[in-house]
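ingest -> fold -> write
write: protein_1
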Amino acid sequence: MDGDWDEVGRITFPVPGSPDYPRPASTVAFDTSHELLWVGSERGRVTSFYGTEMQRYTSFRSHPSTDGPVRQFLFHDKGVIVLGPRSVHLALRRGPAVWDIRHEKMTDLRCMSFTSKGTSEIIVAGCQDIMFVIDVNKGEITRQVPAENYYTIMKKSRHICAATQSGSVDMLDPLTLKVVKSWQAHVAYINDMDAQNDFIVTCGGSLKQQAAQTYMLDPYVNVFDLKNMISMSPIPFPPLAAYVRMHPRMLTTSIVVSQQGQMHVVDLMNPNTSNVRYANILTFLNMVEIAGSGEALAMVDSECNIHLWGSPSKIHFADFAQPIELADPVQPPPEMDWDAPFSTAGMPFYREVLLSSWPSNIVSDLGAPPVQLDPSFLATLKQMEWGWYGRNTRGLLRNQVEDTRGRHRGANALKAPKFLSEKARESMSSGLNPPAEIRQASETLLSSNDLASLKGEAPAMYRNFEIKYSKFGVDDFDFRYYNSTRYAGLENHIVNSYANSLLQVMHYTPLLRNLALQHAATACLASPCLLCELGYVFDMLQKAEGSTCQATNMFKALSSSPQAGPLGLLEEEENKALSLTMMSQSLSRYLLEHITEAYRSILPASTTLEQELFGLPEPPKPEELLTRMLATPAVVSIRCMNCRSESPRPGTTHVIDLMYPAQKLVGRVKMPVARTTFSQVLMSSVERETTTKGWCSRCQRYQTLQTRKTTHSAPAVLTINAAVSSPEQRRFWATPGWLPEEVGIIVDSGQFFCYEEEALRFHLQRGAHNIAVYSLIGMVVNVDSGGQPQNPHLVAMVNVAHSEPTAPGESKWHLFNDFSVQPVSTAEALTFNAAWKMPSVLIYQLKAANNKSNMEWKEKLDTSILFNDLAPPSQPERTYQVLTPQTERPGPDTIIALDTEFVSLKQPEIQMNSDGERETIRPMSHALARVSVVRGQGEMEGVPFIDDYIAIKEPIVDYLTLYSGITPGDLDPRTSPHNLVTLKIAYKKLWVLLNLGCKFLGHGLKQDFRVINIQVPKAQVIDTIELFYLKSRLRRLSLAFLAWYLLKEDIQLETHDSIEDARTALKLYRKFLEFEDAGILEAMLQDIYKAGRETNFKPQRKEDQVVQRTDTPPIPMEPPTTPARKAAAASGQTLGSGGFAMPAWTPGKGSPLKE
C-alpha cells in the first residue's frame, strides 16, 4: 500500500433512483478481467459499477427477493456467477442470464469456489449436508458430494480452504473434494478468511462470557502454512481483527481491518512492522474486499456507503482489463435537403445478418397450395352424390396427402440420388442416362449466378451430405451424382472424417504431396507413421480420377497416435469442449510436427525438386530442407519491464496463428478499428509482441514481461490458422476482397514484411528487394449456421490449378465438401459470411513451386519388403514363398492373384422406417484380417508369395469365420501360428506392387480394395466377376458357382480360404482367355446363366460329400517338377501355364495355353 493511498470515491447503495430503500450490501467483489465492482443486495439484486468513478453499469435480479441475500460472486469468461441461498445463477456482464440452477436440496448455500478444473467447474456449499459440483460451461450439476461440515466461506489456493461454523478450517482436495486436513483457527467462529499461495489468514471470535453467551472478536489474526501444513504464530491486532485480505501481488503481505476502520498492512514473515491507515467512517464496517491488481480496496459500512480506496494515480481493478460492452451511441439523423430527389439517398449496405432475417427453422408456413390434378386423371373419375371417385393413378398411397408446400420449399436443395442398383434396373426398362442425371444435379447446385456465400443461410452446396445405404451397403451409393469432376472426394461416414477438408488442401499443395510420396517410397515400416499414411492417401486421390476415396487407414493411424487423444484430435473421444475449427487447427499443427519428425528418421527417395527449388547441395541435410519447406525459424526475446533484462529462446513454429488488432477504448466507447489488410494482420502475427505476467529470474518475482519474435526466413509452405473467435474478427473476413490470392514476403535483417495487391505489384516492378511471392493453395472453411438447419462441418476450398502438371493460366477453384466436389468461381471461394462461413486453416505455397512435381519416387521405390521374409524363424511352416529378387521382379506385365478376408468391428445399425421397412443407418464396419497374393505367371504360377494375417488392435465383434475362415486364435500374437504383421506392412506390400504396375486379378475386387483402402486404376484390375457378367441379367455370379460349372471344382465347402480363392480366380481368368480366343465367350456366358437359373446359381454338390476343412497347407520347399506335370497330363487333363490341372479344352489361336 503506497503512501498516497486514500479514499478516491464513495457512493450510496442502492444508488439514488433505485426502487429499493437503502440497505447495506450483502457482498462485494472486484471483477478479475474488467474494470467493474460488483455489489449484491439483501433482496437478490446484483449491481455493477464501472471504473474509479463507480458509474452504474448493469443491474439485474439473480433470484427472487424471498430467497434472501446475494452470498458471493465468482467470475468466468462468460460472465459473473452469483450465489444465492437456494440457487446458482450465471449472467452475462451485460445482464442477460446464461443459466440458473435450482435444486430441492439447495436450502442454505453460503459459499462456492473453483475446483481443479479451473474456471470450468465450481463447488457450492453451505449450511447443509450436500455440496454440489456444477459444470459452468454446460450449466449442469455433475455430482453431489456429502459435506463433512457446514461451510460459510471458501477460498481457493493449493487446496480449497473452507471455513466451518465452529471456527475450524477444512482443507479440501480440489480433485477428490475430500478433507485433507482440518485446522482449528478460532474457538467460536470465523468472521473472515482469505487464502493465497501458501498461507491462510483468518479473523474470528470467541466467547466473552461463558454464562452470557456473548462473543467478541479476537485481537489477533491466525496464520496457517499450507506448504508445510503447520500453524504459524498469530499476528497481534489490538483493535480487534474483523476482516483480513492477502495482497494479490505481495505474497506474504496481508491487510487487516477492524470494524472501526483501522487498517494495518502487515508482512506475515515480519509482523512487528506494519503500515497503519484509517478509513473515514462514522459507524462501523460490514465487509472489505481487495482488487486482483492489488491497487484498489472496497469497504462497505453500516450506513449503506461503499468506500473505494487506492492511489489516485495508479488505481485500477484488473491487471489486463478487457473493454466492457456499451450501448452504441445514438447518432443524430443526418440533415437532408428535402428539395433533392429521393434517389440520392442510396441503399444501406449491411455486413451483418439483420435481425429480420429469420432462419428457416422458425419460419412457419400458413396454408398450402392446392393439389394440381392432371386433366387426364380427372376425366377418368365418376361422379356420385358424395363426390368423385376412380382409379388411383397418381403414384401415391391410398389416403396419402400430397405435400404441395414441399414442392416450393427447397427448390435449390439437392435431392438424394437413387441407388446404383435401382438405376441399373431402371436403365434396362426406361433407358435412363445416369450422366445426364449427374449433369442435372451439378446444374442444380450451380444454377444461381449470385454468390452463394452472401446468402443468409448456407446453401445446398455447402451443407453436410449424408451417405444412404441399401442392402448392398455403401458400394450401392451413387457418389458420381455429387461429383462430375476429375478430382476425387472423400467419404464422410468414417470416424475422424472431419479431417477430410485438411487432407484435400494438403494434397493439392505440391510440396507437401511430394514430401509425403517421397517418404512413402522409402523402406519406412514404422507404425503409426502419419507421413507414410499421407503419402498413401495422396496417391489414392491421384489415381482415383474423380472416384470417391476414403482415408480409413490414415484415421486409424491417427487414432493410435499417443498424442492425438490428449490434444483433442479424435472425434471418438467426444471432446465437446473443442469445436471442429479448433480441432482442424490443432490437427494442422500436429501433422506438420509429425511430418518433420518422420522425415528426419529416414532419407527420402529423391530430393531433386527441393534441390532445384532452393539451390541446395546434394544430398541436402534433412534439417535444412525441412527448415526451408515447413518451419518458420525465429527467436523469441523476453524482456522484463522492471529490470530490463532480456533473454532469448528459440521460437521456431510450423503454423502461424493470426492475431487481429484490438478495438481501442476511448472513454467508455469502443472505437472502430482502422481498415486493416490481410497482409498487415499476417505481418503482426509473425512478429507478434505481447505483454504478459511472468516470472523474472533476475527480479525473483512475477513481473510484466514483453515478448517479441524475430523471424529469420519464411518457409515455402505457409500454414496459417485463422483463429477467428469474436464478431469483430469475423467482420474482417466478411469484408469483400479481404483475402488475397497472392502475397509477397520480404525477410530482411530479422524483420518480416508482407504485401498484397498494389503494394506487391509495386515491389515486383521495383525489384529493389528479394521478394518471395506466395500463392493461396486452399483453405479449410467452417460452415456453421448455429446448428440450423444442420450441425457445423468443414469443407475445403482449393485452387487445383497450382497442382496441375502444367499451369492452366487461370484459377480453378473447387469446393470439396467431403465426397461432393463442385467448381466455383474465384469470388465465391474468397468470399466469406460472418453468419455461417469462416476460414479455419489456410495454406500458401511459394509461387515458384506451383505445378512442380517429382515422380522419381516411382523409379526409386524401395521393393525390399517383397523379397524379405518378415516372419520369425520360430514359425515352423509357411504357406507362402517370397519372391526371388534375381528371377522374379514384378513389373507392368506381371499378373498377381489377390484375395482377402475380413472381420467385423461394428455391427450394422438398422432401424424400422415409417413404412415398416428395414433401413440401414450405419453399415457393418470391416477390418482387413488376411491378405493372400498368388503368382499369376512363371514356373511357380499359383504359389503364394504373400499370406499375411493382420494384427488388429480394435475390438472385433464378429470374426465371420463361416465366410472368412478366421478364428480368434489366428489374430492373437500369443497363439497365432501364422505370419502376423501390422496393417502398415501388409498394406505397403500391396502399395509397392501397385506402383510397380502389376495387374491385380481376383473375384469381386471392389470390396477387397475398399477394405484394404487402396485405389487401383482400372487398367491394372482384372476382375473375374466382371468378365463373366451379362449386364442384361442384372446378376453377378459367385466364385463358387463359376468354379463348379467351369472348372468342375468344389470350393468354399465349409469356409473360405483366400489362397484357394485367389488360385480359383486365376484359373477362371485362364478359362476366360480360352473362350475369348475361341470366339465363344458370349455363347458360354448364356450357357452359364442358363445353368444358373436351373440351379438357383448355387453349385450342386453330392449329398453324401463330406470334406474335412483344414488350414492352408504349407508349400513344399521346392516348386513342382516336370514329372509331376506329366503325371497330371497323363490323367487326360490339360495343364495351365503354371502347372494347374484343368479339364480338357482345345485352346484357340493365340491362346497362352497352346504350345
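write: protein_2
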Amino acid sequence: MSLKLRDLIRQVRACKTAAEERAVIAKESAMIRTAIREEQEHYRHRNVAKLLFMHMLGYPTHFGQLECMKLVASPHFPEKRIGYLGMMLLLSEQADVLMLATNSLKNDLNSDNRFISGLALCAIGNLATADMSRDLAPEVDKHLGSSKPYLRKKACLAMARCLTKCSDMVEDFVDRVVSLLNDRSHGVLITVVQLMTRVLIMDMSGDGDEYGDNGDNDDDDNESPCRAAFLRLVPSLVKLLRNLLSMGYSPDHDVGGISDPFLQVQILTLLRLLGTGNVKASEEMNDVLAQVATNTETSKNAGNAILYECVQTIMAVESDDGLRVLAVNILGRFLLNRDNNIRYVALNTLARCIADGAQDTESDGGGEEGEESENNTAASALQRHRTTVVECLKDPDISIRQRALELIYHLVNSANVTALTAELLNYLVLCPREHRSDICTRVLRVVDKYSPDDRWRVDTLITMLTIAGRECASAVQSSTVVYVSRSSEDLRSYSTHKLLKAMRDDDGSQRGLLNVGMWCVGEYGDLLLTPYSYDPPPTEATEAEGGVVSEAVNFGALEPKSVVDIVEEVMNRHTCPLEVKSRALTCFVKLRERFADKPDSEATLEKLAVLVRKHEGSQELELQLRSCEYGALIDAMRGVAVKRGENGGEGGEEDIFGGGGAGGSESSVSATVISAAKEALARMPVVDVKLMQRKREERSGAMMQGDMMDPFDVAGDDGGIADVAAPAAVAAPASGGGEPSLLDLDDIFGGGGATPAPAPAAKQNGSSMNSAAPAKAQSDVDLLSDIFSAPPAAAPVAPTPAVGGFDIFGQTPIQATPPVGTNDLFAPAPVVAAPAAPMSSGGIMDPFAAPSPAAPVAQQKPQQQVVNNFPAASTPTGASTAASVGGPAPASTTVQGFSHGGLSVTFHCTKPDAWNKQNSLLVAKFANTTDAPLYGLHLQVAVPKYVTMEMKPPTSTTVPVTGGSVKKEVTQTINVTNTQLGNKNLMLKLKASFTSKGVKVEHMTTCSNFPGGQF
C-alpha cells in the first residue's frame, strides 16, 4: 500500500543524503506505477498529488500524465481539481496526450459550477495549443459575457492565450474586449488591460508591414483594425487612470497607500504601446502622465514601481520636452535612493533613454557633435545630475559602477569632456583589471571625438597608458603613436620627454606605455637633447577660481648617454617583455642615427652599436634577427660591409648588402647603399589616415579583381600546400629596395629577372603574336593570354588533341603538323616538333591536306628560344612522345628549364603512380658551368591554378663546379598534379637567385615545353 502525501513528505525530509532521498522516491514511484497498472481508482487522486510533490523535487513523473486525464474526466470536484493541477504542471503544450483533454475541457466550460468552469479556463490559459484554441474559443467567448466577475477575469486570460496561438482570430473578438473595459470589477479590468496589451504586442510584431509604419501618424488610416479600435479607447484609459489617482477606485486593493498599483502599471504599459509613434494619442495622455509623475508618493516601493513605468511611457510616446525633463528628474531622484535595485533601474533606464534619443537625433539629421546633447532633451536634463552619476562610480556594488560607467559615456560632450575624462581615469585606477581594456577603448573614442586640443589629447592618452598600459589594446597604442606623429614639433618634444620620464619611473609592467615610449624615443630622441618648457594659458575656469593657473611644465636637456642608459635600464629589467625588447633594439639603431652628428658622442655611438649587436646570438629569433639586420644597417651607415662567418672562412655568409672581404675583413659599399641605410633610419613620414583608408579600399578592390584574373595560385594562410614555393631564404639585395616578391604580379610578369630576348612571332589565324613584348606595353590580361596561349613553335611539344577524343589509329609519326588551327584527328602525330609553317590566308587548315614537310633540325637550332630567353626542351634520342592523353609515357623525360649566369636547370620528369596520370614528379638538377661554386641558391616556382604543387627544399644551397673534384649533385624535388591533363599543359614560372663570385644574380623565366598530353 502506498503512503499518504504527508507521510511521503515526512520521509523525504528525514533523509540525510541524496541517495536516501532517491531510494525513497524510487520505492514510492514503483508503488504508484503498480497502482496505475491495477487501476486503483480510490487512490488515484492521492497518487497524482504525490507525483506533483516528486515533480517539485525534480524527479521524472511522465508516467502519471494519463492519470491526470482520468481525474479531469471525473465528475467529482476534488478529483477534478487535482487532475487540472496535475495537467498544468506535469504536461506541456507539446505533449501528445493533451489532445485527449479537449472534450473534457469543453464539457467543463459548459458546467453550471463556476469553479469547475474556472478550472477549465485556467487550464486553457496555460496549455492551450493552436488547435485547442480554435475549438474552444467560442466557449471562452461565452464566459467573456458572463454575469460573474470570477469567470470574466479568467476568460480574459484564457482568451489572451487563444489569441496568441491563433492571431487570425483577433479581429473577431475586438468588440467584446472593448466592451469589457467598462467593467467595474478590479480583477476583470486588470485582465482586460493585459489582454489588450498582448493583442497590441502581436499586432506590432506581425502586422506592422501589412498596415505600414506607425510612426508620426495623426490619423488612423494606416493603423490595423484592432489598433485603431484600441486607439479610440485612449480617453477612457486616461479617465480610468485619473480616477485611480484622485478618488481611489477600490480601497480593497490599496498597497502601501497607493490605490491599485498593479492596475496603474498595466494601464501605463498599455498607454505606452498606444502612444508610440502616434502624436494624437500622445497628446491625449500627456496631462495624466504629468499628474502621475507629480502626485505619486515615492516613499513606498509601490509608488516607485508606478513612477518607473510612467518614466518609460513618457520616454516612449511623443511627449513634449517638459515632460521628458520631468521624467529625467524622477530618475535622478531614484539615484539618491539607498536601495541599490532602484539605483540600478534608474541608471539603466537613463542610459537607454539617452542612447535612443541620440539615435533619433542622428536619424533626423540634426546637430553637430558638440550640439548632440543640446538636441537630446534627456541628455541635457541629465547634465544637472552629472555629479550624482559620477558618485555612483564609487559605489561598492560592481553592477552599479558598470551602469554608471555606461551612462557617463553618453554624458560626455565638448563642454564637459575634460572633467568626465578625469573621472574615468580615476575610476580606471580602482576598477577590476578585466574591465580596463574596455574602458581604455572607450576613453580613446571619447578623446578622439571631443578632444579640445592636441596637447590635452596626448596628455590624456599618456596618462591612461601609465595607469593601464598592461591591459590596453594595441589599437590604443597605435592611436597614441599616430597622434604624436601628427602633432607639432613642440608637442612631440613634450610627449617624448614625458614618455621617457614615465618609462624610467615604471616598474616594467605597463607594456603599452613601454611600446609607445620606445617608439617615440627612437623617432624623436634628438628632441630630448634640448630643454622644454611650457606655460599653460589661463582659461575661463581658472579665472573663475581666482586666477590660479596650472603649473608650468619644464623638462631639462638630457645627454645622449643619459637617454641610452634609461632605455638600456628598461630593456634589462627582468619584467620587460620580448615585444618591448624588440622595440628597444629599433630604438637603439634609430638613436645611433639621431646622435650621429652630435658633438662628443663617439662613445655613445659605439655603445649603441654594441647594444644593437648584443643579441646576435640570442635564443629569441626576433631579437637575433633584428640584431643582425640592424648591425648591418649601422655598418652601411659607416660605409663598410663586413663578411661574417665561422672563423672568417669560406663558409662565412656575405653581408646582406653584398660585398665583404674574406676572413671577416671590411670592404666599402656604394654611396647608394649608405644613403638607403640613412633613409631607412630617418623619421617616419606623418600618417595620413584618410589617404591610408582610401588606399586600403583601393587595394582591397584591386585584390578582388586580381583574384578573378590571376592564373597562379599563391601561398595562403591556410597551412595548405603553397602553389608558390620558397623553401630557402636568401638575403635581400642592396639595390631596388629589397628582393622582388614572386607573389607580386608585376614582378612575375614584368620585372625582377633578366631582360627577355624577343622570340619569333608565331602566326595564328592571320594575326601575329609576339610573346616577348615588353611588359609595359601590355596589360595584365595580355600577359596572361601570352603565357597561357599555345606553346611557341620552337618548343618540341606535341599538339593537344581535341577534347573528348584522340587518334586511336595513329601510326608512328614522322612529320609535324601545325600546332594552331583545327586539329586533324586522322593525321599522324609528330616525333620531333618543327617550326610552325605559316597558315593559309583563310586561317583554317584543310583537314584532308597532306602534312607539311618537316624542316631540318639543323635549321631549327638557332630559333629554339622561347619567352624569357631559355632554350627549348631537349628530348633524348629515341624517346617518343605520346600524342594522346593517358598514352604510354616514357620512363623519364628531360626538359631543359633555363641556363643563365653559369647556372643550368634541367627537369627530369617521371610518373610515380601508374594509376594516376595527372601526378608527376619533377627532379630539378642544377649544373654549374663556371669555375667557382655558386652560393645561396634559391629557386621559386609558381604554377597555374589548375595545377597543385608540393615543393621540397634543395639538397644544398651551394652548387659546386660541374665536372670538378666535388662529385655531389644538387637536386630539388617538385610534385605536381595537373588537374586538366589533356586540355592544358603543365607550365612553370621560375625565379632563381644565387651569388656567383660575390655578385648577386637573379633570373626569371617561364618553362612551358613539357610534352603535351603527358604533363
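write: annotation protein_2
The chain is about 50% helix and 10% strand.
The CA atoms of residues 249 and 570 lie 76 Å apart.
pipeline exit 0
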